[in-house]
Design a protein that fits this description.
Keywords: Cell membrane, Cell shape, Membrane, Transmembrane, Transmembrane helix. By secondary structure, this protein is mostly helical. The protein has one domain. It has seven helices and no strands. Helix 4 crosses helix 5. The longest helix has 25 residues. The radius of gyration is 18 Å and the shape is globular. The chain starts with a helix and ends with a helix.
Length: 173
């Protein structure tokens, strides 16, 4: 603190980066691109990274992007993950609305409540993907989805930490 006062370099009064409004959306798109990595698996054990980063951003800050961006980001996710066009659009827009409603109803949240909330949302996402696959004729047992659900829930703290570091860099803190 004293050194910053002597050198004249303080963090107060610094503006965020000029590209700051677009960093959250770009990070969600980059996380959606992770599904294009050449990972070969008989069962989808890896989480939906785009959805994980979207939830992390929304739980960290409510203001980085408008709620209607969820539909556009969901469309990008649908194109890269191979979901039916409109699945992520609907799920992500509904998630943003649900999280907005929860923000209005709760007085405070701590880390554990956010983790449980993310676990419920991630489990709902995996269950809906399983249900849609069953409706389209895929004979996938639900037990095949359990590793993806557990891994998604366990990876959420890492995703939340990464998003908080990106946000600090974006705002130059």
């Amino acid at each position: 603190m004293a050194r910053a006062a002597l050198t004249g370099r303080t963090r107060l009064g610094r503006d965020p980066a000029p590209y700051a409004p677009f960093v959250p959306a770009a990070s969600v798109v980059a996380a959606s691109f992770l599904s294009a990595l050449p990972i070969i698996s008989m069962s989808g054990w890896y989480p939906d990274f785009g959805y994980l980063v979207l939830i992390s951003w929304r739980l960290l800050r409510a203001d980085p992007f408008p709620p209607w961006w969820a539909a556009a980001l969901g469309l990008v996710n649908d194109l890269f993950t191979g979901n039916l066009i409109g699945f992520s659009v609907t799920l992500w827009a509904t998630t943003m609305l649900v999280l907005d409603l929860i923000d209005r109803r709760t007085m405070w949240r701590d880390y554990w409540i956010e983790w449980v909330l993310a676990a419920v949302l991630l489990t709902t996402d995996e269950w809906l993907q399983w249900r849609l696959a069953r409706l389209l004729g895929a004979d996938v047992p639900f037990l095949a989805m359990v590793p993806a659900i557990v891994i998604s829930i366990c990876v959420f703290p890492l995703s939340a930490w990464t998003v908080s570091r990106i946000d600090a860099w974006r705002l130059r803190r």
